[in-house]
Amino acid sequence: MSWRDLGAGEVRTDHVGERHTLAGWVARRRDHGGLIFVDLRDETGISQLVVNPERSPEAAKQAHGIRNEYVLQAEGEVVVRAPEAANPNLPTGEVELQVDTLRVLATAPPLPFQLDEEGVDETLRLRYRWVNLRREKMQRNIRTRARAVSAIRREMEAAGFVDIETPIMGKPTPEGARDFLVPTRLQPGRFFALPQSPQIYKQLLVISGFERYYQIARCFRDEDLRADRLQELTQLDVEMAFPDQEFIFALMEQTMGSVWRDCLGVAIHGPFERMTWDEAQARYGSDKPDLRFGLEIEDATALTLGSEFGVFANAPAVRFLRVPQEFSRADLERLEGFAKEWGAKGLAYIVYDEEGEVRSPFAKFLSQEELDAFRSEPATTVLFAADEPAMVARVLGALRLHLGRELELIDREAWRFLWVTDFPLLVWDAEEKRWKAEHHPFTRPNDESLELLDSDPGAARAIAYDLVVNGIEIAGGSFRIHEAELQGQIFGLLDISPEEQRAKFGFLLDALAMGAPPHGGIASGIDRLSMALLDEPYIRDTVAFPKNQAGVDPMSGAPTKVSSGQLAELGIAVVAAKD
Q1: Residue 50: pLDDT above 90?
Q2: What is the DSSP letter of 555?
Q3: Distances from the Cα of 294 to the Cαs of 4, 400, 403, 447, 482, in angstroms?
Q4: Phi-psi bin for 303: left (phi > 0), alpha (psi -120 to 50), beta?
């Protein structure tokens, strides 16, 4: 049986006078007192059906009972619409199908929400995901994502990388987030872990002699969800022996150029701009700065060391933003509240009104040199943060983005790519009072930092790099440690004892000791890349079947309880949570 011989969105004036069969979903039905018009939708687009009772009484009888999202098959003649009835917004808008035979293939009850309805609760959209996926935006998102992955595969294979799958069930290892654990019936009381990334496996593949590996890998991280984070994610994973940072950068620039061209028709050319982590923090207060607007952070620490304004004089770092807006007292109170949410103790300011006159509660304490340095254009507000450097960067970085959106400073048509390089190797966790890896425990320190590992590990820098576009991190990578001794030293700095190293990473340490070449690579989260590509604020809308923010699937009800028999077979007892 042939359900259709033409897509609904493929009907054109070239088909006028021909008989064709279409099939799809009812997007809209309109009854004009005899004539019934149906917008029929399939993956190619929309075509208008016209059911005329004088032409086909039986088709008209069928058409009277149909509703939105019924599935129909329609056969008839393609005709030209009357000029006044043409729809210039549709590729099929000059023609319509005069229906002779209409067949209802599937019915649908009243929908829980209409496809074009706004303000629908996300839980309801997730509960009826198959309906939500029919929306034009969701069709665009999922199809664009698929085209992006196709472009990525083409570039990887053209560069000689081999697609190799790695295990989904492996060994629990500390990589930053909690593991999802999988019990096994054959070894009761023992557990596999779902991979947070294929990190160790890809290193082992390169050590095995597969010098260029890639994979579109599924990864799992048991962590709290937010607008740009998933528990189940997909990433492009790339690793190579004898790594060349310039080659990796050029490969990713070529790949992103192909993705943007194939998906958006936009030309992206390398080389991309580069900036060290220290520079990004100082100028933008972020390791993923949005370069589509200015509003850079300026430093006044040296200038204010001897300031009579005690807040400045006693602060390890004093930095500020010049905002092209004269803020009112109410505006400033609101912005101070925002800054405090990010950890600031307060928000100092100098306002220059339309005549350039100063309004500030602390300007009288500033020297002429300070006032000259802060002098700005009329109708400008200078906002200051004074605290530890990391706190100042965090507060002003968040404030910069907030003001960029609020004041509409962002160029929404621009694509600004950036490599951020030379990340810290380690970061101090004040709560746990120990060092943690900035990227992951297998990241290689640069040569200049090797001698700092014993004396000043916080100053060590890594051969690590992130790719950012419009303030979204879309890829990150590093060179890896390929010497067993150095890897053991880094594990030690991370408070992993020799016994724990052997228990958790013994196989990796053994592999590193058996002829491991220098190696490194990069990974790109397909979900977050899709967010950037589509300018989509919610990562869940780049995935066909996501979980909600609680990690639950409202559609299927997963995760669910299992029977006591299954638990007993696995050697597991469930302990009820205490209230």
Answers
A1: yes
A2: T
A3: 54, 9, 11, 34, 41
A4: alpha
Residue with tokens 């943060």, as numbered in its chain: 385
Q: Which amino acid is at 76?
A: G
Q: Where are the alpha helices (DSSP H) in 26-135?
A: 57-63, 122-127, 129-132
The DSSP bridge partners found for residue 325 are none
DSSP state of 448: G
What is the rounded distance in angstroms from the CA atom of residue 530 to the CA atom of residue 474? 9
Average pLDDT over residues 263-280: 96
Per-residue pLDDT of 401-436, as tens digits, reads: 999 999 999 999 999 999 999 999 999 998 899 999
Separation of alpha carbons 258 and 261, rounded Å: 5
Query: What is the residue type of 14?
Result: D
What would the mean pLDDT of 324-343 be, rounded to a whole number? Answer: 96
Alpha carbon distance 86, 101 (integer Å):
23
Residue in this structure with the two tokens 């929404």, named with its chain if needed: 412
Question: 321-345 b/e with 16+ CB inside 10 Å = b?
Answer: bbbeeebeeebbeebbebbeebebe
Q: Which amino acid is at 139?
A: Q
pLDDT at position 174 over 70:
no
* Strand ranges, E, within 392-463: 417-421, 426-429, 434-437
CA-based nearest residue to 191, from 203, 179, 182, 204? 182
